[in-house]
Amino acid sequence: MNEILNANIFFFVTTIAVVIFVILGIIALYYLILILKNAKDVSQRIEKGSEMIGEDIIELRKNVKTEGFRLVYFITFISNLFKKSRIIKKNKS
To answer: Could you tell me which of 52, 41, 60 has the C-alpha nearest to residue 87?
Structure first.
C-alpha cells in the first residue's frame, strides 16, 4: 500500500511540474514573438533609411557627373541628410 501511495505522490508532483514548465514555456514564447516583431520593425526602418541614403548618393553622383565636383553640392548633400534625419525624428515623436 505504501508503494502505491508513493507512486501516486510522484505522479502528482510530476504532473504539477510539467504544467508549470509548459506555462513558463508559453510565456517565454510569447515574449520571444514580441522581440522578433520588434526586430522586424527595426529592420524595416533600417531598410527605408538605406534606400533614402542610396537615393541621395545617386543624386550626388548625377550632380558630380553633370556639373563636376563642387563643394557646394557636397555641402548641400550633407545638409539634406541631416534635414531628413530631423524630419524622421519629428515624425517618431
So the answer is: 52
